[in-house]
Specification:
The chain has a single domain, classed as Rossmann fold, CATH 3.40.50.1110. It contains 14 helices and seven strands. The strands form two sheets. Strands 2-1-3-4-5 form a five-stranded parallel beta sheet. Strands 6-7 form a two-stranded antiparallel sheet. Strand 6 and strand 7 form a beta hairpin.
């Protein structure tokens, strides 16, 4: 009987931990990002600076906006560069924050597209007019997060919150309230990457062996070969580009990079469909497209099989992007 009680307690403990994990994960996914976005888009931007945004998923996220801004400032001092990459981002998700992006009046947006971004379906396809014309309801009571932001007027506060370990977040908060200057000591030096969450493994470089010839027969698909210009994600992306251009915002597209080990998982047909889709969109909306998907395939700059490391040794990705931006400003 004692054994049965112990087993029951153990199972209850496991279930409790599992429920806590999934509730916590759901909160971070659906609400934490919303708070980060509210803080970023509602801040006071320097009216004398022109803003450049990098948007896309976590593969865009690995671009160093601070480095790019410093690179550009060698010639042009009136530009700010922000990396607004969001893990798991897709056009059907990005369209929901389009109004906020436009309201901040960026001069240029570089949109990074991954193979997976053009696959999948949008359950409730959103019309662009609905997004642009939407008005958020006014909160009667003040948001606790906004009150905290007023106490600590530094947008990097969004970098230290750790919902995986609330105790650490609380301790850090007390330290900041005692001395706001300590915030620079506990957050990464990525002030222009507002939706970034610190993970040490993102800064590591790992060695990946090139796939063997036999691996060719075991390819997995990153993108369905059924992707066409009529697919929901492509339609959402076209709506985003069209609306940005209507608001006099320069748009540049680029395909995000992959290591050789991941490119081997793609059929040549899949790559051709992906690149041709971007080229057709480029022609339709008169926007430039740059291809990075195989540019660094043979280099040892990867944190994992789909992400460039944020290590200083991988700065070539950010350096090449800075050169593109500089050329676009000059043209």
């Amino acid at each position: 009987m004692i054994t049965g009680i112990i087993v029951t307690i153990f199972i209850a403990l496991i279930l409790g931990l599992a429920i806590t994990y999934y509730v916590n994960d759901f909160y971070r996914t659906h609400f934490e990002l919303e708070k980060w976005e509210d803080l970023f888009y509602s801040q006071h931007f320097d009216p004398h600076k022109k803003k450049i945004y990098l948007i896309g998923s976590s593969q865009v996220h690995r671009l160093n906006a601070t480095y790019i801004e410093k690179y550009i400032s060698q010639i042009y001092q009136d530009y700010e560069v922000y990396n607004l990459g969001i893990p798991g981002d897709k056009p059907s998700k990005r369209i929901n924050s389009l109004k906020e992006i436009i309201d901040t009046k960026p001069a240029m947006i570089l949109y990074g597209i991954a193979f997976r971004d053009l696959q999948g379906s949008v359950q409730n396809q959103i019309q662009i007019t609905d997004v642009i014309g939407a008005v958020k309801p006014v909160d009667i009571l003040p948001e606790p997060w906004n009150l905290l932001y007023e106490i600590i007027p530094n947008k990097t506060i969004i970098d230290f919150s750790n919902f995986d370990n609330p105790q650490i977040t609380t301790l850090k908060l007390f330290k900041i309230l005692q001395n706001p200057n300590t915030i620079s000591q506990i957050t990464p030096d990525l002030p222009n990457t507002p939706f970034y969450k610190y993970k040490p493994e993102n800064f590591e470089i790992k060695n990946f062996k090139s796939p063997m010839k036999k691996d060719y027969e075991k390819r997995e698909r990153f993108i369905s070969n059924q992707t066409r210009l009529s697919d929901p994600e492509v339609i959402a992306m076209k709506s985003i580009i069209s609306t940005l251009k209507e608001n006099n915002i320069q748009v540049i597209l680029f395909s995000v990079p992959y290591p050789k080990i991941s490119l081997y998982k793609l059929d040549d047909t899949d790559i051709e469909i992906f690149t041709s889709t971007l080229e057709e969109i480029s022609d339709e909306f008169d926007v430039k497209v740059y291809h990075f998907y195989d540019k660094y395939a043979d280099l040892n700059i990867w944190a994992d099989p789909i992400h460039v490391s944020m290590n200083q040794k991988s700065i070539i990705y950010s350096s090449d992007m800075a050169k593109i931006i500089l050329d676009e400003i000059k043209s």
